[in-house]
């Protein structure tokens, strides 16, 4: 029997699957780094979501560690290279929360274009700003997707249903069965899009994939959506472009600094044409259950393999 610790517990159904498999002695509790370091030498399977950073020192301290399961898409909170060096397997669940993230992306877009948060806040403050809140339809607009994986595809499906034209760039995608124009470069997307939405993981190659030079290539009055990862968008460049009037607005679910309490992020969030949520792209009951079940199945399969 393997000792499994879920430092970021999965959905109850998934945790039950792990416990009932008979393969694991399961513990579940979010421990801070110092506490996790104390127990990691005895752990063979470590399960995390986004809240836990699986750093090199944690991995090196895990002398019995065989598997790290990241319940979710991104692996930017796991030191994958160190894990590989140590022979520790790393698994994630790409696609399991794609619908949740895609729905939030479309929600952010509509909220931005129709100024829904400002209308809501105004009413709560006793204001009736009907004449000030003239927005824009998304029908007929061009949505540019940077990244066309599982989430990008789900966003495209929903955008097409709204009557948007969709263009996308992904170096790993050569064709698609959707009515989407695949372009040859990020620059092609930027030149055509009224709305640019990011759907890439955070890696050294994608850090600030949308920066000052790229924003300058966008249409005047375009908007940016980032529900991918903080860091893929240069937020200083975004702020400058919003202040200068180059961009008409932005909708953000993720930030390079989270929580976004530093001076730059406070100024950015203070702009009237910025809509934001606190990194909730995958935070639906349905999405988390799918993620948890997929992760549990993978861990059970791996445990049987190496038992």
Automatic annotation (TrEMBL):
Keywords of the record, alphabetical order, are: NAD, Oxidoreductase
Taking every annotated instance into account, which residue ranges of this chain make up the domain D-isomer specific 2-hydroxyacid dehydrogenase NAD-binding? 106-281
Output the superkingdom of the source species.
Bacteria
Q: Which residues form the D-isomer specific 2-hydroxyacid dehydrogenase catalytic domain?
A: 8-304
Q: Which CDD domains match?
A: PGDH_2
UniProt cross-references to Pfam families, sorted A to Z? 2-Hacid_dh (PF00389), 2-Hacid_dh_C (PF02826)
Per its UniProt record, what InterPro entries does this chain match? Answer: D-isomer_2_OHA_DH_cat_dom, D-isomer_DH_CS, D-isomer_DH_NAD-bd, NAD(P)-bd_dom_sf
Q: What are the recorded GO MF terms, alphabetically?
A: NAD binding; oxidoreductase activity, acting on the CH-OH group of donors, NAD or NADP as acceptor
Say yes or no: keyword Glycosyltransferase present.
Answer: no
Keyword Oxidoreductase among UniProt keywords? yes
Name the protein family: Belongs to the D-isomer specific 2-hydroxyacid dehydrogenase family.
According to UniProt, the name of this protein is: D-isomer specific 2-hydroxyacid dehydrogenase NAD-binding
Which organism's genome codes for this protein?
Kosmotoga olearia (strain ATCC BAA-1733 / DSM 21960 / TBF 19.5.1)
């Amino acid at each position: 029997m393997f000792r499994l610790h879920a430092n970021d517990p999965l959905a109850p159904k998934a945790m039950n699957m792990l416990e009932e498999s008979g393969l694991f002695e399961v513990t579940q509790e979010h421990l801070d780094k110092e506490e996790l370091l104390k127990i990691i030498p005895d752990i063979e399977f470590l399960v995390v979501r986004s809240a836990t950073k699986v750093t090199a020192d944690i991995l090196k301290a895990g002398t019995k560690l065989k598997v790290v399961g990241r319940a979710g898409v991104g692996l930017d909170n796991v030191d994958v290279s160190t894990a590989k060096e140590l022979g520790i397997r790393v698994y994630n669940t790409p696609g399991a929360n794609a619908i949740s993230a895609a729905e939030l992306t479309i929600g952010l877009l509509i909220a931005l274009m129709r100024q829904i948060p400002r209308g809501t806040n105004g009413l709560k403050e006793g204001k009736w700003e009907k004449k000030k809140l003239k927005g824009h339809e998304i029908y007929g607009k061009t949505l540019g997707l940077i990244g066309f994986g599982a989430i990008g595809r789900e966003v495209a499906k929903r955008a097409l249903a709204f009557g948007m034209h969709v263009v996308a760039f992904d170096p790993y995608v050569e064709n698609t069965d959707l009515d989407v124009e695949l372009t040859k470069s990020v620059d092609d997307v930027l030149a055509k899009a009224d709305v640019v939405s990011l759907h890439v993981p955070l890696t050294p190659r994608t850090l600030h994939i949308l920066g000052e030079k790229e924003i300058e290539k966008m249409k005047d009055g375009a908007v940016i959506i980032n529900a991918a990862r903080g860091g893929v968008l240069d937020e200083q460049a975004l702020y400058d472009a919003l202040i200068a009037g180059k961009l008409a607005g932005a909708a953000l679910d993720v930030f390079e600094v989270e929580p976004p309490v530093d001076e730059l992020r406070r100024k950015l969030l203070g702009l009237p044409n910025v809509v934001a949520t606190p990194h909730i792209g995958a935070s639906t009951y349905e999405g988390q259950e799918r993620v948890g079940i997929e992760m549990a199945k993978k861990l059970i399969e791996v445990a049987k393999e190496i038992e």
